[in-house]
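Shipment paperwork, digital attachment
Item: protein structure file
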Amino acid sequence: MLRFQRHVGYSKCLRLYQYCYQRNFAGHNKWSKIRHKKGANDLVRSKMVTKMLRSLSIAVREAKQKNIGDIAKDHKVMQAKALALRAGCTKANIEKALKPSAKADNEVWERILYECNMGNYCFVVECYSENRKRTAPLVKHVLTKNGGTLGTTGSVMWAFDERGIIEATPKEGKVLTEEEFDNIFVAAVDAGAEDVELTEDCLVILCDTTDLSNITDVVRDCVAQVNYEIVASEFTYLPKDTVTADSGDTFSNVLNSLEDLEDVQNVYHNVDVR
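Attachment content:
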Protein backbone atom coordinates (compact mmCIF):
# COMPACT_ATOMS: atom_id res chain seq x y z
CA MET A 1 0.00 0.00 0.00
CA LEU A 2 1.30 3.45 -0.91
CA ARG A 3 1.96 5.44 2.22
CA PHE A 4 4.11 8.51 2.75
CA GLN A 5 4.41 9.94 6.22
CA ARG A 6 6.51 12.65 7.80
CA HIS A 7 4.80 12.87 11.17
CA VAL A 8 2.34 10.68 12.97
CA GLY A 9 -0.94 12.10 11.79
CA TYR A 10 -4.57 11.48 12.46
CA SER A 11 -7.16 10.51 9.93
CA LYS A 12 -10.87 10.48 10.54
CA CYS A 13 -12.54 7.37 9.32
CA LEU A 14 -15.30 7.71 6.79
CA ARG A 15 -17.74 4.83 6.98
CA LEU A 16 -18.71 3.54 3.52
CA TYR A 17 -22.02 1.78 3.30
CA GLN A 18 -22.49 -0.61 0.40
CA TYR A 19 -24.71 -3.52 -0.56
CA CYS A 20 -23.55 -6.97 0.42
CA TYR A 21 -24.62 -9.65 -2.04
CA GLN A 22 -24.47 -13.24 -0.80
CA ARG A 23 -25.32 -16.46 -2.59
CA ASN A 24 -28.70 -17.64 -1.41
CA PHE A 25 -29.94 -21.16 -2.11
CA ALA A 26 -33.33 -20.83 -0.41
CA GLY A 27 -34.78 -18.73 -3.23
CA HIS A 28 -38.15 -18.06 -1.64
CA ASN A 29 -36.90 -15.26 0.63
CA LYS A 30 -34.18 -13.85 -1.61
CA TRP A 31 -36.14 -10.74 -2.58
CA SER A 32 -37.19 -10.21 1.03
CA LYS A 33 -33.55 -10.12 2.16
CA ILE A 34 -32.51 -7.83 -0.68
CA ARG A 35 -35.46 -5.53 0.04
CA HIS A 36 -34.56 -5.23 3.72
CA LYS A 37 -30.89 -4.62 2.91
CA LYS A 38 -31.84 -1.98 0.35
CA GLY A 39 -34.19 -0.34 2.84
CA ALA A 40 -31.45 -0.16 5.48
CA ASN A 41 -28.95 1.31 3.02
CA ASP A 42 -31.49 3.82 1.73
CA LEU A 43 -32.13 4.93 5.31
CA VAL A 44 -28.40 5.41 5.95
CA ARG A 45 -28.02 7.37 2.72
CA SER A 46 -31.06 9.53 3.52
CA LYS A 47 -29.68 10.47 6.93
CA MET A 48 -26.27 11.28 5.45
CA VAL A 49 -27.84 13.48 2.77
CA THR A 50 -29.87 15.33 5.41
CA LYS A 51 -26.78 16.02 7.51
CA MET A 52 -24.71 17.18 4.56
CA LEU A 53 -27.43 19.58 3.39
CA ARG A 54 -27.75 20.93 6.92
CA SER A 55 -23.99 21.53 7.05
CA LEU A 56 -24.19 23.36 3.73
CA SER A 57 -27.09 25.53 4.92
CA ILE A 58 -25.23 26.46 8.09
CA ALA A 59 -22.08 27.30 6.10
CA VAL A 60 -24.17 29.57 3.85
CA ARG A 61 -25.65 31.38 6.87
CA GLU A 62 -22.19 31.89 8.39
CA ALA A 63 -20.91 33.24 5.06
CA LYS A 64 -23.80 35.70 4.91
CA GLN A 65 -22.97 36.94 8.39
CA LYS A 66 -19.44 37.71 7.14
CA ASN A 67 -20.96 39.87 4.38
CA ILE A 68 -19.10 37.92 1.71
CA GLY A 69 -19.99 39.12 -1.79
CA ASP A 70 -20.00 35.73 -3.51
CA ILE A 71 -21.09 33.16 -0.95
CA ALA A 72 -20.26 30.25 -3.27
CA LYS A 73 -16.55 31.18 -3.03
CA ASP A 74 -16.40 30.94 0.76
CA HIS A 75 -14.11 28.01 1.61
CA LYS A 76 -16.55 26.47 4.13
CA VAL A 77 -19.37 26.64 1.60
CA MET A 78 -17.15 25.09 -1.07
CA GLN A 79 -16.19 22.19 1.19
CA ALA A 80 -19.74 21.63 2.42
CA LYS A 81 -20.93 21.56 -1.18
CA ALA A 82 -18.23 19.04 -2.16
CA LEU A 83 -19.17 16.76 0.74
CA ALA A 84 -22.86 17.04 -0.14
CA LEU A 85 -22.15 15.96 -3.71
CA ARG A 86 -20.08 13.02 -2.48
CA ALA A 87 -22.91 11.98 -0.16
CA GLY A 88 -25.26 11.77 -3.13
CA CYS A 89 -27.23 14.99 -2.68
CA THR A 90 -28.99 16.09 -5.83
CA LYS A 91 -27.94 19.32 -7.54
CA ALA A 92 -31.45 20.68 -7.05
CA ASN A 93 -31.27 20.22 -3.26
CA ILE A 94 -27.79 21.72 -3.16
CA GLU A 95 -28.95 24.79 -5.10
CA LYS A 96 -31.87 25.10 -2.69
CA ALA A 97 -29.49 25.00 0.29
CA LEU A 98 -27.33 27.68 -1.32
CA LYS A 99 -30.37 29.96 -1.59
CA PRO A 100 -32.32 29.50 1.67
CA SER A 101 -35.77 30.96 2.04
CA ALA A 102 -36.50 33.99 4.21
CA LYS A 103 -38.04 31.67 6.81
CA ALA A 104 -34.92 29.51 6.89
CA ASP A 105 -32.74 32.60 7.27
CA ASN A 106 -34.67 33.53 10.41
CA GLU A 107 -34.06 30.16 12.06
CA VAL A 108 -31.41 30.28 14.77
CA TRP A 109 -29.09 27.29 14.57
CA GLU A 110 -26.36 26.76 17.12
CA ARG A 111 -23.39 24.45 17.46
CA ILE A 112 -23.66 22.41 20.64
CA LEU A 113 -20.99 20.19 22.16
CA TYR A 114 -22.07 17.46 24.57
CA GLU A 115 -19.44 15.78 26.74
CA CYS A 116 -20.32 12.18 27.51
CA ASN A 117 -18.79 9.39 29.54
CA MET A 118 -19.37 5.63 29.55
CA GLY A 119 -16.85 3.78 31.66
CA ASN A 120 -13.46 4.19 29.99
CA TYR A 121 -15.07 5.63 26.85
CA CYS A 122 -15.18 9.38 26.39
CA PHE A 123 -17.31 11.07 23.72
CA VAL A 124 -17.56 14.61 22.43
CA VAL A 125 -20.80 14.87 20.46
CA GLU A 126 -21.05 17.82 18.06
CA CYS A 127 -24.59 18.84 17.15
CA TYR A 128 -26.24 21.53 15.06
CA SER A 129 -29.73 22.29 16.28
CA GLU A 130 -32.38 24.98 16.33
CA ASN A 131 -33.92 23.44 19.45
CA ARG A 132 -31.57 22.58 22.31
CA LYS A 133 -34.47 21.22 24.38
CA ARG A 134 -35.09 18.57 21.72
CA THR A 135 -31.48 17.58 21.09
CA ALA A 136 -30.18 17.12 24.65
CA PRO A 137 -32.74 14.46 25.71
CA LEU A 138 -32.08 12.46 22.53
CA VAL A 139 -28.33 12.34 23.20
CA LYS A 140 -28.90 11.58 26.89
CA HIS A 141 -31.29 8.70 26.09
CA VAL A 142 -28.70 6.93 23.90
CA LEU A 143 -26.14 7.11 26.71
CA THR A 144 -28.28 6.26 29.73
CA LYS A 145 -29.76 3.11 28.17
CA ASN A 146 -26.18 1.83 27.73
CA GLY A 147 -24.91 2.84 31.16
CA GLY A 148 -23.40 6.17 30.14
CA THR A 149 -23.91 9.70 31.39
CA LEU A 150 -24.21 13.16 29.88
CA GLY A 151 -21.49 15.17 31.60
CA THR A 152 -21.04 18.83 32.40
CA THR A 153 -18.75 21.24 30.58
CA GLY A 154 -15.12 20.15 31.06
CA SER A 155 -15.93 16.68 32.34
CA VAL A 156 -14.54 15.00 29.19
CA MET A 157 -12.91 17.75 27.16
CA TRP A 158 -9.70 17.47 29.20
CA ALA A 159 -9.05 14.13 27.47
CA PHE A 160 -8.95 15.72 23.99
CA ASP A 161 -6.89 18.25 22.07
CA GLU A 162 -8.68 20.54 19.65
CA ARG A 163 -6.93 20.68 16.29
CA GLY A 164 -7.56 21.85 12.77
CA ILE A 165 -7.75 19.09 10.17
CA ILE A 166 -7.60 19.33 6.39
CA GLU A 167 -8.45 16.37 4.17
CA ALA A 168 -7.84 16.18 0.43
CA THR A 169 -8.75 13.34 -1.90
CA PRO A 170 -7.68 12.52 -5.47
CA LYS A 171 -9.73 13.07 -8.59
CA GLU A 172 -10.06 10.19 -11.05
CA GLY A 173 -7.79 7.79 -9.17
CA LYS A 174 -4.80 10.14 -9.08
CA VAL A 175 -1.82 8.83 -7.04
CA LEU A 176 0.75 11.27 -5.68
CA THR A 177 4.40 10.69 -6.39
CA GLU A 178 6.83 11.12 -3.52
CA GLU A 179 8.12 14.33 -5.10
CA GLU A 180 4.58 15.78 -5.30
CA PHE A 181 3.95 14.80 -1.69
CA ASP A 182 7.22 16.43 -0.59
CA ASN A 183 6.20 19.69 -2.30
CA ILE A 184 2.86 19.71 -0.49
CA PHE A 185 4.54 18.71 2.76
CA VAL A 186 7.04 21.59 2.62
CA ALA A 187 4.36 24.15 1.73
CA ALA A 188 2.06 22.95 4.53
CA VAL A 189 4.80 22.89 7.18
CA ASP A 190 6.06 26.33 6.14
CA ALA A 191 2.50 27.60 6.63
CA GLY A 192 2.38 26.09 10.15
CA ALA A 193 1.15 22.50 9.76
CA GLU A 194 2.05 20.05 12.54
CA ASP A 195 1.42 16.68 10.85
CA VAL A 196 1.11 15.58 7.22
CA GLU A 197 0.13 12.04 6.24
CA LEU A 198 -0.79 10.38 2.96
CA THR A 199 -2.46 7.04 2.37
CA GLU A 200 -3.80 5.66 -0.89
CA ASP A 201 -7.03 7.61 -0.78
CA CYS A 202 -6.56 10.64 1.47
CA LEU A 203 -4.09 13.40 2.32
CA VAL A 204 -4.48 14.52 5.94
CA ILE A 205 -2.95 17.64 7.48
CA LEU A 206 -3.17 18.60 11.15
CA CYS A 207 -2.55 22.07 12.51
CA ASP A 208 -3.33 24.50 15.29
CA THR A 209 -6.88 25.82 15.09
CA THR A 210 -5.63 29.39 14.63
CA ASP A 211 -3.70 28.38 11.50
CA LEU A 212 -6.47 26.37 9.83
CA SER A 213 -7.76 29.05 7.46
CA ASN A 214 -4.31 30.13 6.25
CA ILE A 215 -3.02 26.58 5.74
CA THR A 216 -6.22 25.63 3.91
CA ASP A 217 -5.63 28.40 1.37
CA VAL A 218 -1.99 27.34 0.88
CA VAL A 219 -2.80 23.63 0.56
CA ARG A 220 -5.74 24.23 -1.79
CA ASP A 221 -3.43 25.79 -4.37
CA CYS A 222 -0.88 22.99 -3.99
CA VAL A 223 -3.29 20.06 -4.28
CA ALA A 224 -5.09 21.62 -7.24
CA GLN A 225 -1.84 21.35 -9.21
CA VAL A 226 -1.73 17.56 -8.69
CA ASN A 227 -5.43 16.91 -9.35
CA TYR A 228 -6.47 16.64 -5.69
CA GLU A 229 -9.27 18.55 -4.00
CA ILE A 230 -9.94 19.56 -0.40
CA VAL A 231 -13.05 17.84 0.94
CA ALA A 232 -12.81 18.95 4.59
CA SER A 233 -11.28 21.80 6.54
CA GLU A 234 -12.60 21.91 10.08
CA PHE A 235 -11.90 21.62 13.78
CA THR A 236 -11.56 18.16 15.28
CA TYR A 237 -10.93 16.67 18.71
CA LEU A 238 -8.06 14.20 19.06
CA PRO A 239 -7.82 11.99 22.16
CA LYS A 240 -4.67 12.46 24.24
CA ASP A 241 -4.76 8.74 25.07
CA THR A 242 -6.76 5.91 23.54
CA VAL A 243 -8.39 2.82 24.98
CA THR A 244 -9.37 -0.50 23.40
CA ALA A 245 -13.04 -1.35 23.06
CA ASP A 246 -14.17 -4.18 25.33
CA SER A 247 -15.56 -7.37 23.88
CA GLY A 248 -19.18 -7.02 22.87
CA ASP A 249 -21.04 -4.43 20.84
CA THR A 250 -21.70 -1.78 23.49
CA PHE A 251 -19.27 0.83 22.15
CA SER A 252 -20.23 0.34 18.51
CA ASN A 253 -23.94 0.39 19.38
CA VAL A 254 -23.59 3.69 21.24
CA LEU A 255 -21.45 5.22 18.49
CA ASN A 256 -23.87 4.15 15.76
CA SER A 257 -26.90 5.31 17.76
CA LEU A 258 -25.37 8.74 18.34
CA GLU A 259 -24.41 9.13 14.68
CA ASP A 260 -27.94 8.14 13.65
CA LEU A 261 -29.43 11.13 15.48
CA GLU A 262 -30.44 13.77 12.95
CA ASP A 263 -28.97 16.69 14.93
CA VAL A 264 -25.57 15.01 15.41
CA GLN A 265 -22.88 16.07 12.94
CA ASN A 266 -19.76 14.44 14.43
CA VAL A 267 -18.89 12.11 17.27
CA TYR A 268 -15.32 12.18 18.62
CA HIS A 269 -14.13 9.45 20.99
CA ASN A 270 -11.03 8.01 22.64
CA VAL A 271 -11.32 4.43 21.35
CA ASP A 272 -8.67 2.97 19.07
CA VAL A 273 -10.75 1.54 16.22
CA ARG A 274 -7.85 0.09 14.20
